[in-house]
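FOLDING PROBLEM:
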Amino acid sequence: MTLTRRAALVAAASFTAFPAFAQKAPVFAPEGMAIRGYDPVAYFAEDGPVKGSVEFTSTFDGATFQFASSQNKDLFDADPAKYAPQYGGYCAYAVSRGYTADTDPEAWSIHDDKLYLNFNKSVRTLWAAQKTKNIEAADMNWPNVLNEG
């Protein structure tokens, strides 16, 4: 084998040696449904998670959000960034650590009028222990974590 042919084979192998990772969607939405079908406005208006309805839906950042009422849908439609969960609804603690993770609609918190979701209630406790520091880290990592494999 000539040196040129060998170099070409090595170069070709280097392009296939590393898997390509697709960018994650900007909103965590299993089966296209943001917050697993819970109403994002209800976290603010009703002080907690309330299941939305297929009767009241909106699309934002490529995901479908459901609402418990037409009033909540109208509030969301007027200002989706105000009500949508931070970091696309991915686990805020995970984003603060440089990766993404699923979320549980029951593991939530509101800080400075922003909704944060976490993987589970135990992770929410870790998140809350250093919330300001975690938000600063997550803000720096977002949205770059969507490109991580």
